[in-house]
Specification:
22% of the residues lie in helices and 27% in strands. A hairpin with a 2-residue loop joins strand 1 and strand 2. The longest helix has 18 residues. 37% of the residues are buried.
């Protein structure tokens, strides 16, 4: 409780570097102490075992139980069968990303020489993106996010893959948070402030963890330093799948 009080105090003072350090410390302590009987499920609407929350950032270790992770992975594999992974490219240079990706939901995020954008169809097959799995919509509602999520980015990180610091700012609606779900190998995740030169902190995101950033932290810089290979047995071939839920169009258009 003392650590949570420190988080609340610095959140009021809006020192985001200290807020992040304390929030990450709290989340890691929660993860160390988190215990859940095998197969037990946390029903939507019931209290979390532990949750770090400050200034629009929420870290929920173990939101998805092992059984729920396997069920969600099966849903994602069905999506991938309809919308295969592709390799996005950097605008202008055409340099390929180190991750493979696809999407589900009404809209999907793509990147190529033409720039970053959302579109309703797969860039290679031209087919509409598959529907978003129900557990992800339930997660959005469970977290109290406004409206409905319109895009779920599905990034696959193999060993050696990473993601540089960036902001999620291609959405017309910035009043809704970004919701991130980790499946598979643990990621060393890095988050900073709303300017590129702000101090950063890193933490580990394990399979089943959920990270939310919105409000004054909606445009924080964030990225993935590295993947800790062999830290999870969820994916048969290893690696990490990250699911990122976003609201794209203005809420008043819903």
């Amino acid at each position: 409780m003392m650590l949570q009080s420190k988080i609340a105090r610095h959140s009021t003072q809006r020192d985001i570097s200290i807020v992040l350090e304390l929030a990450f410390q709290f989340a890691n302590e929660c993860e160390d102490n988190l215990s859940r009987p095998d197969g037990a499920e946390r029903l939507p609407g019931t209290p979390y075992e532990c949750m770090a929350e400050t200034d629009g950032i929420r870290i929920v270790p173990g939101y998805f139980s092992e059984n729920a992770q396997r069920a969600l992975l099966a849903d994602i594999e069905a999506v991938i069968a309809l919308a295969p992974f592709f390799v996005p490219k950097m605008p202008r240079t055409g340099r390929p990303f180190s991750v493979r990706m696809t999407n589900c939901g009404p809209l999907g995020w793509v990147s190529d020489e033409g720039g970053y954008r959302y579109q309703p169809s797969h860039p290679q097959t031209s087919r509409s993106w598959p529907p978003m799995p129900a557990p992800l919509k339930m997660l959005w509602d469970d977290l109290g996010a406004p409206g409905e999520p319109e895009a779920c980015l599905i990034n696959y990180y193999e060993s050696g893959a990473k993601m540089g610091l960036h902001q999620d700012r291609d959405e017309a609606e910035l009043g809704a948070p970004v919701v991130s779900v980790s499946l598979g190998d643990t990621a060393v995740f890095r988050m900073g402030g709303t300017t590129r030169r702000a101090p950063t902190r890193s933490m580990r995101l394990s399979s089943g963890d959920v990270l939310v950033f919105g409000g004054p932290s909606r445009l924080v810089y964030h990225g993935v330093d590295r993947i800790l290979g062999g830290s999870s047995r969820l994916l048969s071939g290893g690696g990490r799948i990250n699911l990122t839920l976003r609201r794209v169009t203005p809420l008043e258009e819903q």
